[in-house]
Amino acid sequence: MVFSIRAAILDDLGAYFHVNRELVGIFAGKAFLGFAAAIVIGGPLCDALGMRSLLSIACLLHIAGVSLTIFAPSYGVLKSATFIVGLGNGLVEGVINPLIATVYAEEKTHKLNMLHAWWPGGLIIGGLAAYALTALGLGWKIKMGIILIPALFYGAMTLVQKFPATERVASGVSAVEMFREGLRPMFLLLAFCMVLTASTELAPNQWMQSVLWNIAHTPGILVLVYISGLMFVLRFFAGPIAHKVSPVGLMLGCAALASAGLFALSYAHNALTAFAAATVFGIGVCCFWPTMLGITSEQFPKGGALLLGVMGGIGNVAVDQALPLMGRIYDEHGAAQAFRYATIAPIVLVGIFGGMFLYYQARGGYRAVELKQTAPAE
Question: For the chain, which residues make up each domain, given as ranges?
Fold first, then answer.
């Protein structure tokens, strides 16, 4: 919800605080920077403090960040508030990814895709809510305020749930082994891929409303809701597809579709062409984030919550850098060029995932690495 509501009010915030699009991109990027910081720190803390404690802290951060955004007196305070909301988002993801990897150790890619189906699910809810509130003539502060509803709801749920120990802890893997996993060449390559997949999926989506309204006179928030609907449905089917062609093969196909769809979006000139291009783009990016986490967890299970957190952190830092870059291109060269330049990332991914697919095929095919769990639940 946070992402789509922020996307819907970017232009409103730019006008309210009297800043250009590059500065709008910088403030929006603070959410991803906060996310990155929290998810990297939250991974190891998940082992040390437990999942319930981190989710409780996340709830408080969401409430504080949203409230500060609504009452921000200046652009500087807005950036800080957005960073705080990002911290809350990051702590939530820092818990739920290792939670799913632990509970569903034999179906990681499939279950992580199902879990992350609720990322676009939240985008749909937030996007439609923002569109409805706009139709009612209500301002950006009201739109931002509705984020408090799910924050309070999950905070209350956290108090009554029982959480397991993480997969790494349950398997008796040492901290030294965990950190060593992060230095393996294949993980470093995956980390670079995460930079490109996250930038391809999230940076264009955050600018969707503004760009498509300018080049195609189409409400970009509705296109974002449509893309999110595709992602929501398709992520439930990602597991069987990955089982057929392997997670790496799935990523190869997704990168090719994302390239074509994003390039086509830059040429959209009306609602029909915008939604047609968005269909291809949405199918392409639908499995990027959860499948990257699935591959990481399946190939480097000793890395546990730390490596899942690092991957999420890398992705969010990448988006933090990509958003103002797209904003600068937007200001200097126009809305269409902002999307056109962004197409470079998925094109590079096609080459990398193609090479990885051939590598695994030469080794007898993609296989998940399994750990035996011996420790009891938390």
Answer: 2-362
